[in-house]
Automatic annotation (TrEMBL):
This is 4-hydroxy-2-oxovalerate aldolase. One of its GO terms (biological process) is L-leucine biosynthetic process. It comes from Scopulibacillus darangshiensis. Keywords: Aromatic hydrocarbons catabolism, Lyase, Manganese, Metal-binding. It is an enzyme of class 4 (lyase). Its EC number is 4.1.3.39.
């Protein structure tokens, strides 16, 4: 029997960046990475929430240069491999090279679910750099299964070792996850992964549905330290998989301890499904939009849920963060006209 049936990537140090306004410090990253490595977590993703070079006015400025965070994480891990996320158009092959030089061993190249073709250069470069490569198809609820398969096959043809179904909005229902993973399983030769968000309280159910259909690469965030309501909670996932007899190779007690002692201290407030994170899942909006929408709601004196619902109707995708303020301003205009 294999040592691991399911391989977990811990994403708190990248996806969790959204939840804390990209304020990670070297000290936090060192503490968490060291503990995750000690708990035998195989992959730890570290980067700005929006991937390499995400630090900007558009996406939010990082407190600490992400390269310093990546280097710090790599320097304290004995077994865990450091993964980085890269969204072509935000990050470039230059940042990828830099990350590889300082210890990143896995490149996860993320595109909108219908735009896999923009990943070919970055996947090829990651392979040239000797990195393990992942194609990350975001906002997977926005494309029909056939389209998703077509896009995943493109990533496979560029050399990706794994393709992920990414439920960025936490909008997918378990039967929708099943259909997607099954179709990928039937049509691709490479590993299939799943990345969930808990906005509709379905991250665990969706993850189990994905595993049932053959996904072997799964993302989790300890203490739900991820965008929106967070991701599938890693320590809970490890417990559930253990009960199912599915091996992750992760030490459960150590995972629970680091959740309590380190991750909980990083969160500015305990992670829960709030009215706003719930609306992300309900309306199908990118989880990373949460803090931006809340900020705009405050600035314009409107209900953040109205902004998110409208963004969902307009099918706004990553990279269109400027629309959040536009929508808030339009709601004010509309409300004033009615008065
Ligand atoms: C903005 C990138 C995004 O946070 C990637 C991701 O984790 C997702 O789409 O869920
Ligand atoms: Mn995510």
């Amino acid at each position: 029997m294999a040592e691991q049936d399911v391989i977990i990537t811990e994403v708190a140090l990248r996806d969790g960046s959204h939840a804390i306004g990209h304020q990670f410090t070297v000290d936090q990253v060192v503490q968490l990475s060291k503990a995750l490595d000690d708990a035998n977590v195989p992959y730890i993703e570290v980067a700005h929430g929006d991937g390499l070079a995400g630090s900007s006015l558009q996406y939010g400025l990082s407190k600490t240069d992400e390269m310093a965070l990546i280097e710090a994480a790599a320097s304290v891990c004995n077994n865990a491999k450091i993964a980085v996320l890269l969204l072509p158009g935000i990050g470039t092959v230059q940042e990828l090279k830099q990350a590889a030089n300082i210890g990143a061993e896995m490149a996860r190249v993320a595109t909108h679910v219908t735009e896999a073709d923009v990943s070919s250069q970055h996947i090829a470069m990651a392979k040239d750099l000797g990195m393990e490569t992942v194609g990350f198809l975001m906002m997977a609820h926005m494309a029909p299964v056939k389209k998703l398969v077509e896009q995943a096959k493109l990533m496979e043809s560029y050399g990706a070792d794994t393709v992920y179904v990414v439920d960025s909005a936490g909008a997918l229902l378990p039967h929708e996850v099943k259909a997607r993973i099954r179709a990928l399983r039937e049509n691709l030769q490479i590993n299939i992964g799943f990345h969930g968000h808990n906005n509709l309280s379905l991250a665990m159910a969706n993850t189990l549905a994905a595993i049932e259909e053959g996904a072997t690469r799964i993302d989790g965030s300890v203490r739900c330290l991820g965008a929106g309501a967070g991701n599938t909670q890693t320590e809970v996932l490890v417990s559930v998989l253990d009960r199912l007899g599915i091996k992750t190779g992760i030490d459960l007690y150590k995972m629970m301890d680091l959740s309590e002692d380190i991750a909980a201290q990083i969160l500015q407030k305990p992670q829960e499904i709030t009215k706003d994170s719930l609306v992300l899942g309900y309306a199908g909006v990118y989880s990373s939009f949460l803090l931006h929408a809340q900020k705009a709601a405050k600035q314009f004196g409107v209900d953040s849920r109205d902004i998110l619902i409208e963004l969902g109707k307009r099918r706004v995708v990553g990279g269109q963060e400027d629309m959040i303020v536009d929508v808030a301003a339009e709601i004010v205009k509309k409300n004033t006209a009615v008065m």
